[in-house]
Design a protein that fits this description.
- By secondary structure, this protein is mainly alpha-helical.
- It is 67% helix and 7% strand.
- It is built from 6 helices and 2 strands.
- It has helices at 5-8, 35-47, 49-58, 61-86, 91-96, 98-121, and strands at 13-16, 19-22.
- Strand 1 and strand 2 form a beta hairpin.
- Helix 2 (35-47) packs across helix 3 (49-58), helix 2 (35-47) crosses helix 4 and helix 4 crosses helix 6 (98-121).
- The chain is rod-shaped and about 80 Å long.
- The N and C termini lie far apart (49 Å).
Length: 123
Amino acid sequence: MKKTIFEQMGGTYTKVGDYYLPNLLLAEKGTEIGLWGQRHLRYIKQHRKVLYTNLLTSGKLNGYLSDIDKQAEDMFFRLVKQIAEREGVTEQLKANNQMEWVAHMNNIRSRVTEIVTHDIIFN
């Protein structure tokens, strides 16, 4: 019997009942995916199904999500720092009036979360 392309490439089959099923393993690193990566995963599962399926079947999904997570996190911290400096939210304000500092920082983080979500997660 002639070997299939799968067998020629080193693949094997297991007989289950009357059928031969290929022995497939997912060869992907177990990297941690953070908040931003999980949000993007949820988005592509719901709205970009072809991209999700292609990444999943090619074994590149975790690497892709890890890259998205790192980009989003870097952008988030960079923007929070830049906006806080521009608006004068300093350590001096934190020392003098903690509640005002917290209010400003929460406002900044909220705005930056929307920016990162729009620019990276939903693209």
